[in-house]
């Protein structure tokens, strides 16, 4: 009998019955692939894999398992060709089912059907229900364990539809990931002893193996009720968090700096701590302090970041929120708004899953991206890798495709791109400039391009397409990888070398060995000019 091979996971949460149907939903394909590999570990019975992107299962980390099962004759992959007009009809599903019924090994096997949520969300409840009934009949007649893998931008909407069709499924799991923590949300899950409903488990990957993250007993839970709210009304602020001379309520306490506030916070359970961020603040160190406070003091402690004159980028915001911060404020000049925002979070608890260590989060937030021009193959690798990391941290990213006007040589517009921020990369292939903007929201794309491109975009490009969802960004990367795999594409790396001249060189100049005979050091002596007498026309007589 198949089951999820996850270390420490209770049998009732991991077992899948024969003659049953299950749905696993996730925003990204990578999250589903990871869980599928744990489902197929030590799998002995036949497996039928149906997918529009069947090659996706044989790519990336952990694909060796599927290759092994394929070579042993256990895994049988089928490629589904999706056609919107055909697939809506029941005869499409009947045709797929009738084809796999020709295999004797289908009985007592596992059938995995991978579909894009976009193809199903357009169906109404009746159409979707009629389709699912065909698969329910298959699982019951052949004693098959049928697992649907559903991913894409519309997976949340599809989840609501499937909850209304619970008669067609024996289990429904929604998968999310925040930094290194994977969360399995069991909407319902039938097992031999009963039904699990409305439960969640947190998982973490260790050496390629998912393991259950034990829920730590919070410091608040150990305390008595009277002790929990003892310091609930206390608000501690650093001196620079509000303008000098601001009149504060009596229960607001001023403290010298962030370090002193951190030390004070270690003794609190439910108070509110307001840290200040200036241009001199080490954001990484402050994030570590917030994480330590959250781990030690529990979920009732309220942590607030007040941006005074520093620069908190979108990626930094996501890092703080992942590591335990409740609120980030920007209205430094309006103390009344600060008081209102602090009042609004009183009584709240931090509910996001916390990683075991801060290093598990920082590996997603480190700026290891290249910048500037990359050849198409390197561009695809970089975007796919860091789009996945950004999605797990909640950081936005956009892929912009600019189609070049006819009769314009690509090198000319490429020279006009001047990238100064790590993570912003671009490439050119097949008449299109591909531009990936890391930690950029969709509504900021126009402003970002104006900073990157010197002239009017419309003077060089006939169209612009923006992809802002990480699921579709990764799909486009896979399409590019397949499309350009056997195609010779021009690499402009050498021609664009001078485009990196704006990068600051940290090495100090070697003044002692400068050649003073070069033109820029030569002293030019000009002859003294002779005065010329000028007579105005009115002075002539």
From TrEMBL:
Task: Output the superkingdom of the source species.
Answer: Bacteria
Stored InterPro entries? BcsE
The protein's name is: Cellulose biosynthesis protein BcsE
Organism, as annotated? Pseudoalteromonas shioyasakiensis
